[in-house]
Design brief:
The complex is a heterodimer of chains A (317) and B (249).
Chain A (H helix, E strand, L loop, with lengths): L1 E5 L10 H9 L6 E7 L3 H8 L4 E8 L8 H11 L3 E7 L2 H14 L4 E4 L1 E4 L2 E6 L4 E7 L4 E5 L15 E4 L9 E8 L12 E5 L9 H11 L2 E4 L1 H5 L20 E5 L5 H7 L4 E6 L12 E4 L2 H14 L6
Parallel strand pairs in A: 1-2, 1-4, 2-3, 3-10, 4-9, 5-9, 12-13, 12-14, 14-15, 15-16
Antiparallel strand pairs in A: 6-7, 7-8
Helix pairs in contact in A: 3-4, 5-8
Chain B lengths: L1 E5 L2 E3 L21 E3 L1 H15 L5 E8 L4 H9 L4 E6 L6 H15 L3 E5 L10 H9 L3 E10 L3 E8 L2 E8 L2 E5 L11 H7 L4 E5 L11 E7 L8 E3 L2 H10 L5
Parallel strand pairs in B: 1-4, 1-6, 4-5, 5-11, 6-10, 7-10
Antiparallel strand pairs in B: 2-3, 7-8, 8-9
Helix pairs in contact in B: 2-5, 3-4
Classes of the chains: A alpha/beta (317), B alpha/beta (249).
Chain lengths: 317, 249
């Protein structure tokens, strides 16, 4: 049997994490069908059809699915799920929102936030905010799985020509109403998806000093993060918080500045590919996870860092 | 109106998790346990709505072993009116917990169920959504703002792209984000008073729902350790290593 994967999109373009989910799904079963449910979303279905790993696209074009309300989307997915063994989506706020409703309707115990597919029924997933990894086997006949997008490479986008099939909308309960969506407008990349993250901790001493961090973030096209201590001290708003109770980030490069490295913070960033720590306390626990540690006064090191970056001919974006 | 708040007892977020050598799980003996952090936000919001006069009663419920009662007692100490402890000896998956909570909802008939957005132990992020689906109720997940109206609530939720505003009809399930509010501490007199508040007991396996686990935990292991890094002596050396060795800038 096959995989039903639910595409994430904004009705005009496909969101990239869908490609990561497709690549994860290909390790469960090669027969991948992708559902594009939305309103005026034909362009998205074409994009998905071009992904070589996709065997079939199901498009459900209806005003019911315009705003991806889980109360509306879940009954459609549950109905289509009859013909599938695996129901897959990304473990971001899109997938986390509707997938448990599908699992409940199918009486399936969902496997959340998978970081590795061992076999079609066995998965690796982090627990305790990544402080332990659990290998789990789903004994349900159908599997409802959400995958952590940053743990899988995106599937190639072009070269395929999957068949596109229309599917009928199903009745919606009319119990919720979309009002508005305010996307955070920032010159910088989103914390959760940025290739580079630079974070400040209590060592920054005040909110104003964060401009030392943002100057480097601008240069590296990085997102700005912070430790809970910096957030609690009011240096920066809490949507920048990296850690167990904030965001979990997995960038290629994570730069921790003036952060001691409390357990709560490490849980949110220690899976980063390369970690740099800049701290004047040589005994700070952050150095135990850092690939490159610089024991220095951040107020001297950060301006120097910016000056060194300015000397480089090219910087990866 | 009436709010049911579901709370879970978990390893305290400040405790260093230690994986058992035999791969069967993590150490919980003599480890500090607390209420799951976003569940504290759920209680706080329910109590605030009660204080505003819009809500008459707040009932706190937990599912778990004998000691899980502590989380209910704590909810009572910060303002919940009474508690329910559904006794269960071993771990139950979110699917089973949602079925148990559905039974409690059918008995209590609340207008809203509040939960934390996610438990920090199994990190599943499922229970609230599953409960909403089983009840055919709307859901407000990752909620950071609640505006209660007569027959609906307007909520703001945290999504990856920013914020989303929805109106959900009552009854509804709300899963609470840490940004929803600042949970209060229980005062000593209130802790004493909470000891007199009633906690009803129920037994999970007597509720007539299938709570058998479907997922087998084969192994729990420590995440791969990072190799010991190097200390660099200057900013110039750091930048050079990032550029030429790690190739990340």
């Amino acid at each position: 049997m096959s995989v039903l994967l639910i595409a994430e999109h904004d009705n005009s373009t496909l969101k990239v994490f869908t490609l990561n989910a497709i690549s994860a799904a290909s390790k469960m079963d090669a027969d991948i069908h992708v559902l594009v449910a939305g309103s005026g979303c034909e362009n998205v279905s074409k994009e998905v059809a071009a992904v070589p790993l996709v065997k079939k696209v199901l498009i459900c074009d209806s005003p019911n699915y315009k705003d991806y309300l889980p109360e509306n989307l879940a009954p459609l997915v549950s109905k289509l799920a009859e013909k599938y063994d695996h129901i897959v989506a990304s473990a971001n706020t899109f997938g986390k929102n509707f997938m448990p409703r599908v699992a409940a309707a199918l009486d399936v115990s969902q496997v959340s936030d998978v970081i590795k597919v061992n076999s079609p029924d066995t998965f690796l997933r982090p627990i305790y905010a990544g402080n332990a990894f659990a290998t789990v086997k789903s004994n349900d006949k159908k599997k409802c799985v959400t995958i952590r997008p940053t743990s899988f490479d995106p599937a190639p986008k072009t070269g395929g020509s999957a068949q596109v099939e229309k599917v009928e909308a199903v009745a919606v309960p009319n119990v919720s109403k979309f009002i508005k969506r305010e996307e955070t407008k920032s010159e910088r990349p989103e914390l959760g998806t940025a290739r580079v993250v630079i974070s400040g901790g209590r060592g920054m001493e005040n909110a104003d000093n964060f401009k030392l961090i943002t100057a480097i973030a601008d240069k590296l096209n990085a997102a700005v993060g912070a430790s809970r201590a910096a957030v609690d001290a009011g240096y920066i708003s809490n949507d920048h918080q990296v850690g167990q109770t904030g965001k979990v980030v997995v960038p290629d490069l994570y730069i921790a500045v003036g952060i001691s490295g409390a357990i709560q913070h490490l849980a949110g960033m220690k899976e980063s590919k390369i970690i740099v720590a800049i701290n004047k306390d040589g005994e700070a626990p952050i150095f135990s996870v850092a690939d490159y540690g610089l024991e220095a006064d951040l107020f001297k090191a950060l301006p120097e860092f910016l000056a060194e970056l300015n000397k480089l001919n090219t910087i990866q974006k | 109106m009436k709010i049911l708040v579901a709370v879970k007892r978990v390893i305290d977020y400040n405790v260093q998790i230690r994986v058992k050598e035999d791969g069967s799980g993590v150490h919980t003996d003599n480890v500090k346990m607390s209420t799951n952090p976003p569940d504290d936000n759920a209680i706080e919001e329910a109590v605030k709505l009660k204080e505003s006069g819009k809500v008459k009663e707040v009932v706190a419920v937990t599912v778990g072993e004998e000691k899980a009662q502590e989380t209910v007692r704590k909810a009572l100490a910060v303002g919940a009116d009474r508690g329910i402890h559904v006794k269960a000896d071993s771990y139950i998956e979110p699917l089973g917990i949602a079925k148990i909570l559905k039974k409690v909802v059918e008995k209590e008939k609340p207008d809203m169920v509040f939960l934390g957005k996610q438990a920090i132990d199994d990190d599943c992020n499922q229970t609230g959504q599953m409960l909403a689906a089983m009840l055919n109720w709307p859901q407000a997940t990752f909620t950071s703002k609640v505006n209660l109206k007569d027959k609906a609530m307007e909520i703001v939720r945290e999504i990856d792209e920013g914020l989303e505003t929805l109106e959900v009809n009552l009854p509804a399930v709300v899963t609470c984000d840490l940004r929803l509010n600042e949970p209060r501490f229980a005062s000593l007199p209130n802790i004493m008073k909470a000891k007199k508040k009633p906690i009803d007991q129920m037994i999970a396996k007597d509720l007539g729902v299938d709570i058998a686990n479907r997922i087998q935990q084969l192994k729990v292991e420590e995440p791969p350790r990072r190799k010991g890094g190097v200390k660099v002596s200057s900013v110039a050396e750091l930048v050079s290593k990032l550029k030429n060795e790690a190739k990340v800038i």
